[in-house]
Amino acid sequence: MPLKIIKTFDVKFLQIIDESGRADAGLLPDLTTEELLKIYRAMILSRTFNRMALALQREGRIGTYASILGQEGAETGSALALEKGDWIFPSFRETGVFISRGYPLWRMLRYWRGDERGMEAPADMNIFPMSVPVGSQITHAVGAAMAMNIKKDKNIAVTYFGDGGSSRGDFHEGLNFAGVFKAPVIFICQNNQWAISLPRNRQSAAETIAQRAAGYGVPGIQVDGNDVVAVYAATARAAERARAGEGPTLIECFTYRLDDHTTADDSSRYRTDEDVAKWQKKEPLIRYKIFLENKGILNKELDKEITDEAEGLVKAAVTEAEAVAPPAPADIIKYTSATLSVRQKKDIKALKWEK
Ligand SMILES: Cc1ncc(C[n+]2csc(CCOP(=O)(O)OP(=O)(O)O)c2C)c(N)n1
Ligand SMILES: [Mg+2]
To answer: Rounded to the nearest whole angstrom, what is the distance from the C-alpha of residue 76 to the centroid of ligand 1?
Structure first.
């Protein structure tokens, strides 16, 4: 005898601009020419910064760097759909989110040069420092969102993490609390198919990351993460829900990490060039550029103007970042605990970092 079905779930997928740059007019959000160009500028600036950061790393001018190549759509599309007062809790691969928010580029470089002070956000910019311990930022965002509910604050919290991050307990704890307390938080999973060398299918047996939200009574959606407009629309909708007191949303941005995990990695050891080449054709800037050109919003001259402007901004940021004094070596030890142990004090002296 067939059992009674008491609940069914489905997982929706949102794509608005396809790989050839064609848009589904019925799904297009109401964005002005200015807003569409703002997204393009943020994507170009993110890519330009990323290229420079990789070059600087090779010259030994910054430390290990995590490239965002291929993920600019997921990052700028989501960040630009938020309000200024919303709080962001990012991981280490959200350089494009910082840039879209207007984070000073030189401070980003200061961070990647190994100086934590680079993560001191300007006072009016509600963004937490990049979190390197995988998944740890998820529960921070949920806690902040629960506090916003208590304080009747109309801002929301947004946290970013990877497919690997979704294997952490923090993900499950975060979603569970957020669901129960209807916390105004958006969970943005950048599913870039890899957690260093571990492929997506080893993170979870679930076919999508989005469907895991259902287990916590939270809506989940999978979005083409290489379609910046789809990511924008999904984030705007989730933000609207959160602000209306309807609680959290999980957005899985289906994308691909085109570069190595970090500059310390060699991805040719665990994936093929053909795989990467296949995704190269789907990268987010190609289709968005065609879309803007077809709409008559972008032409060669304007494109050059935007690209040149980005180059200029990034070059100026490098000069500015390299002009600031590096941190004192003793800081490595000094700020790890509230009070220094006898051993730590001895180490500082022995290494001649301080008298
Ligand atoms: C708690 C913790 N465990 C392990 C690591 C080492 N580590 C750094 S990044 C990473 C994989 C992260 O994969 P994912 O969440 O998919 O993010 P992506 O790097 O793809 O953006 C791991 C295991 C870490 N930083 N923190
Ligand atoms: Mg990943």
So the answer is: 21
Neighbours of 51 (CB within 10 A): 15
**Residue 336 pLDDT > 90:** no
User: Which of 94, 187, 196, 209 should be mutated for ligand 1, with most atoms under 8 A from CB?
Assistant: 196
**Residue 67 and residue 93: Cα distance in Å, rounded?**
7
pLDDT digits (tens, 9 = 90+) for 133-181: 999 999 999 999 999 999 999 999 999 999 999 999 999 999 999 999 9
- Give yes or no for residue 264 CB within 6 A of ligand 1: no
Whether this prediction's pTM lies above 0.90 is answered by: yes
- Our answer on whether the CB atom of 192 is closer than 6 Å to any ligand 1 atom is yes
Q: Which residues surround ligand 2, an ion (CB under 5 A)?
A: 162-164, 192, 194-195
Residue 246 tokens read as 């309807």
Q: Is the CB of 133 under 6 A from ligand 1?
A: yes
CATH 3.40.50.970 domain locations along the chain = 12-23+30-324
Scanning the chain, the segments in alpha helix (DSSP H) are: 33-58, 72-79, 95-100, 105-112, 136-151, 169-181, 228-243, 273-280, 284-294, 300-323, 331-334, 342-350
CA 293, distance to chain mean position in Å, is: 26
313 CA → ligand 2 middle, Å: 29
262-288 burial by CB neighbour count: b if 16+ within 10 A, else e?
A: ebebebeeeeeeeebeebeebbbbebb
Q: What are the φ/ψ torsions at residue 200 (nearest 5 degrees)?
A: -50, -40
Judge if the beta carbon of residue 261 lies within 6 A of ligand 1: yes
Q: Report the pLDDT value the prediction gives residue 328, as an integer from 0 to 100.
A: 86
Q: Which CATH class is domain 12-23+30-324?
A: alpha beta
Cα 148 from Cα 337, distance rounded (Å): 30
The catalytic site residues sit at 257, 261, 270
Q: Is the pLDDT of residue 355 over 80?
A: no
Calpha distance 215→166 (Å, rounded): 14
CA of 34 to the centre of ligand 2 (A): 32
